[in-house]
Design brief:
five-stranded mixed beta sheet, alpha/beta, 482 residues
């Protein structure tokens, strides 16, 4: 029965694929990431729940030409292509999607609709950055899996991946990066508006096009024809003018030919998971372990201090620690990392790795505090009373009598927290730390497979966490016999 349902569903999806599926549904669903912001696609502040941007207007125009309506589907930019290949979420991907050899080997591309330049920016006082040749060994920020990312990797620069377009320029301004390489329309809005930064120059050009799933040639051809009509009518450049991104070079999009499309798409490449990527996985595992161990070394003493102050400290200080615990446990650690790294950048200059360790350490200290408080409360009250009756000061009684017994009770919880911390360390990728999970996502997009990189990632996490579990069980057994 279940097999029949699956077969029926699969057949139905195949039958309704491509242009026929879009026309039958009456809607062209296009994937994009609103985090990319202006001028691509962003939430409309005047109309909550709706989007605006030059690609939003372009999608509406294309849908009109196809006789349907357009509907944007929010999706993380770096995974737009894998999500499109998987199917089911949206029909096409259109969000500053650059034509690169790697992508051309994975999906179908329409004719380009926008010509962009790769713009290099540096700090005004740093005159050593003069071009691509000066980036070797330097930290340069860009979007992961973008055309700029691939160019940086081949230039010998230390490419630093970001998920947003504003954050790299903040880090460049704060001295955390040496340069930023982004598309010119991104640099114009988010980099060139900062007085401390300068334009080094444009070091390459590329094209934005619409991505379509392999095998859906009918939909790609229909979009190609629609783009051609919109371009020749002048509507395409009118959209660009409204968003301040039009220039003389965009006339090439109006005069574009099929031969040019074939030339642009002629270069394809498919990467494979080799030993070089495995080595990068091992390096990222070391970063994950460093962040996790560093954060736990901070969380354990801080958590113990919070628990002791809450139980034995002055009432006002106990209220403060309670507030700390509730605030750090009650708000997302992702938000805390953003505030610590970006929000406090003007007053607290931390590099990404230090911010990751500090942010996770402060967050997990709140959880550790509750683990230790529970352990201390589990020690019979008579133990403390007996120690005080023997003339021990409170601090000595805690150190020699209460805390050792409390630690025995708390040990399983501490082990649990450290294993959870290993996995939560994946969140630090939002502040440009390339840890194990981030490396997996970058590699998965490059090699066109999530199964093998995902399995390798899981195996490395297990290799780090399982020995800890074994060690904790041996320590628990030893403490039980003591």
């Amino acid at each position: 029965m279940a097999l029949g349902v699956l077969l029926w569903t699969a057949c139905g999806q195949k039958e309704g694929s491509g242009l026929e599926r879009v026309q039958r549904a009456g809607v062209l669903r296009w994937g994009a990431d609103a985090q990319g912001g202006e001028p691509y696609a962003m939430e409309d502040p005047d109309h909550p729940g709706q989007y605006r941007g030059f690609e939003v207007e372009l999608a509406d125009a294309l849908a009109r030409e196809l006789g349907v309506r357009a509907e944007m589907v929010q999706n993380d930019w770096s995974s737009l292509i894998p999500t499109l290949e998987r199917g089911g979420s949206f029909d096409v991907a259109m969000n500053g999607m650059e034509i690169t050899p790697a992508r051309s080997g994975r999906v179908l591309f329409t004719r380009p609709y926008y010509l962009f330049n790769l713009r290099l920016m540096a700090r005004k006082e740093d005159t050593a950055i003069t071009g691509l040749e000066a980036l070797r060994g330097r930290r340069v920020g860009t979007l992961s899996n973008s055309q700029a990312w691939e160019l940086l990797l081949h230039s010998g620069a230390q490419a630093v991946p970001y998920e947003g377009v504003q954050e790299p320029y903040i880090d460049l301004e704060q001295g955390r990066l040496d340069a930023v390489l982004m598309d010119d329309i991104i640099a114009q809005r988010y980099g060139m508006t900062r007085p401390g930064l300068r334009v080094v120059g444009d070091v390459g050009e590329g094209y934005y096009a619409i991505s379509v799933r392999p095998g859906e040639d009918g939909l790609r051809q229909a979009l190609d024809d629609a783009l051609g009509r919109i371009a020749r009518s002048g509507e395409l450049r009118e959209i660009f003018r409204r968003w301040g991104i039009d220039n003389a070079a965009e006339q090439r999009m109006v005069d574009w030919t099929e031969a040019q499309t074939r030339e642009v798409l002629s270069q394809t490449s498919t990467a494979h998971l080799g030993w070089s990527q495995v080595l990068l996985f091992l390096q990222s595992s070391a970063v994950t372990l460093l962040v996790s161990v560093g954060a736990m070394l901070l969380a354990i003493p801080l958590g113990m201090s919070l628990a002791l102050v809450r139980l034995y400290g002055p009432k006002w200080l106990g209220g403060f620690t309670t507030g700390y615990v509730e605030l750090l446990r009650g708000t997302p650690v992702l938000l805390q990392l953003y505030v610590l790294y970006y929000g406090l950048a003007a007053v607290l200059r931390l590099d990404a790795l230090s911010a990751a360790i500090l942010g996770l350490g402060l967050n997990y200290a709140a959880y550790e505090a509750e683990v230790y408080r529970a352990g201390i409360l589990a020690v019979p009250r008579g133990q403390m009373e007996a120690a005080l009756a023997l003339g021990m000061p409170t601090r000595l009684a805690l150190r020699r009598v209460v805390i050792p017994q409390a630690f025995r009770v708390a040990l399983p919880g501490v082990t649990n927290d450290f294993i959870a911390l290993l996995k939560d360390s994946s969140l630090v990728s939002v502040i440009s730390v390339v840890e194990l999970t981030k490396r997996m996502t970058i590699t998965a997009v490059d090699v066109r497979s999530w199964m093998v990189p995902g399995a390798l990632c899981a195996a490395l996490y297990l290799a780090m966490s399982y020995p800890l579990s074994r060690l904790a069980r041996r320590l628990e057994a030893k403490l039980e016999r003591a």
